[in-house]
Every structure is written in structure tokens, then in C-alpha cells.
């Protein structure tokens, strides 16, 4: 069974694009149904405030306001090709640590498919619907839409569950050399950075599978 760990952030548009492209590659890969995909936490900017603010304002400080139209136009064009409707005008910047905790919870208690559904819902909420992904009430709603139990989610978010585990996972990502997202790690050995084209991901899946087939079984 091939495992792929995807290091990504909810506040990363290229992670959204990369997710869609990798899923397209999996759909074209003959053994795609047997690939185990799990999402690992990474924060592009851990200093992002808990209180939500317009994403455009935060990006203007970071990149310069004059750069935003071209940046957004490029991402809008790429997003459309992948079935993503970016809405940068309404997007809200918020610290994503709690969202990563919720993704950890989804994986631990519900499994990979539910975690993937929650990841998709969080990305769509952040980039397409102007939702505050740091708000516990809104996170509870999104989790319920992705198949998590509403009451259990609310209790989880109100607790300290997962805090230490997610902090450790973020530290481990940096320790193994993850410096940009998305980063796809295949079988804990081979890493591919960036939102590659689906065709490239497909080639990597084929190459990794071939390489694993050459290795003697334990």
C-alpha cells in the first residue's frame, strides 16, 4: 500500500490547486484506489492573528498592494482550470492552527476519507466563501458538512485535544526539511514540492510504484 503524506496549509491557494491536481492524477492511476493519502499540518505564517481580517489587507502588507491584481488573476485562471472558484475579495485571513487540529481529529477518529472531505471543505470555505476558519462555531458547521459529529466536534474544539500532537507534527515537518507547501512525501522517502501538473503527479506515482516493486519484501 502506497502512502502519500501531504504537507499543506489551509491558507495556501497552491495547496488547494495541488490537492485537485493530485486527485486528478490518482483518478488516472490504475492503482489509485489503493493509495493512502493523509494530510499533515504546516503553517505558512504561524504569527497570523486569531482574529480574522481581510486577506487582501494582509497580502498587501506582505507583497505590496500593487502586486495583488496580477497574483489573483493568475490564481483565478489556474483555479478555473481545476474547478476552483477563488474569491480573494471576500477571503478572510485567520490563524489556521485550530483548523489543523480539527484535521488531525478527523483523521484520528474518522479516517482518511473524512479528513480529505474536511480539508476540501476548509479550503473552499477559506478561499471561496469568505469564512473565518478560526471561528469554532463555523468550524463546527464545516466539520458537520464533511461528516463529523457536530457535538463531538464542538467538544473537541473547546478542549486541548490534539494541541501537543499538532505542534509536534508541525515541528517534525520542518525537521524533515519541509520548507514550502504543498509538499507530497511518497512512502516516507520521496518528496515532490509544489502544485505540479496532474501529469507530473501521475508520472511520480508510476515511478514510485515501480521503485517499490524492485525492493525486496521484508
UniProtKB/TrEMBL annotation:
Cited Gene3D superfamilies: Glutaredoxin
Residues covered by the DSBA-like thioredoxin domain: 3-205
SUPFAM superfamilies: Thioredoxin-like (SSF52833)
Coiled coil regions, renumbered to chain: none
Membrane-traversing stretches: none
Pfam families in UniProt: DSBA
Superkingdom of source: Bacteria
Cross-referenced CDD domains: DsbA_FrnE
Classification via InterPro entries: DSBA-like_thioredoxin_dom, Thioredoxin-like_sf
Protein name: DsbA family oxidoreductase
Species of the source: Streptodolium elevatio
Organism lineage: Bacteria, Bacillati, Actinomycetota, Actinomycetes, Kitasatosporales
Amino acid at each position: 500500500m502506497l502512502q502519500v503524506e501531504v504537507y499543506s496549509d489551509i491558507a495556501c491557494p497552491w495547496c488547494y490547486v495541488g490537492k485537485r491536481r493530485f486527485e486528478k492524477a490518482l483518478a488516472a492511476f490504475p492503482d489509485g484506489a489503493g493509495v493512502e493519502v493523509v494530510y499533515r499540518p504546516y503553517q505558512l505564517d504561524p504569527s497570523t492573528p486569531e482574529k480574522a481580517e481581510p486577506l487582501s489587507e494582509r497580502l498587501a502588507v506582505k507583497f505590496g498592494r500593487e502586486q495583488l491584481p496580477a497574483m489573483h488573476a493568475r490564481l483565478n485562471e489556474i483555479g478555473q482550470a481545476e474547478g476552483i472558484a477563488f474569491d480573494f475579495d471576500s477571503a478572510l485571513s485567520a490563524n489556521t492552527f485550530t483548523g489543523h487540529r480539527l484535521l488531525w481529529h478527523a483523521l484520528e477518529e474518522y479516517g482518511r476519507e473524512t479528513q480529505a472531505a474536511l480539508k476540501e471543505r476548509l479550503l473552499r470555505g477559506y478561499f471561496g466563501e469568505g469564512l473565518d476558519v478560526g471561528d469554532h462555531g463555523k468550524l463546527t458547521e464545516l466539520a458537520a458538512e464533511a461528516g463529523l459529529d457536530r457535538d463531538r466536534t464542538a467538544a473537541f474544539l473547546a478542549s486541548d485535544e490534539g494541541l501537543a500532537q499538532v505542534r509536534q507534527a508541525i515541528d517534525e515537518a520542518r525537521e524533515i526539511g519541509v520548507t514550502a507547501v504543498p509538499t507530497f512525501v511518497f512512502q516516507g522517502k520521496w518528496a515532490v514540492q509544489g502544485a505540479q501538473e496532474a501529469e507530473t503527479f501521475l508520472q511520480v506515482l508510476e515511478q514510485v510504484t515501480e521503485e517499490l516493486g524492485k525492493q525486496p519484501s521484508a
